[in-house]
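[User] At your convenience, examine this fold.
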Amino acid sequence: MSTHALVGVAVGDGFQARYVHFDGYPSAMLPALRKIMSWGDGSVDYILGNHWESLNLSSRTPAEPDSHEQTWYTESSTIDHEYLYLLDGYRKSITSFINLDNKWVEINPNNTIKNKER
């Protein structure tokens, strides 16, 4: 069974994101995203360049991009996704959210809710 996630950037009060099909839970995504963001300039653009089957760390590079659908996801199109990760390339930070009743709620790295809706 797959855990669907979105990886994106904040845009105004919303976001634009790409789809990740497998391993979208924080214990898999956060280390993978941190590793890719450590590559430096262009790393966020690299992640946002495609939708992904997985951002697996078992190899030194992420899995091959999924070439099926290349649209951007926004808040109005995210009902079927369990997690959202917003990247800030300038600050080198990742903010994690979980989908609870079709609302994005910020979570800490240990998956506890921070009482902050998006």
Notes: The chain has one domain: 5-93. The two ends are 27 Å apart (CA to CA).
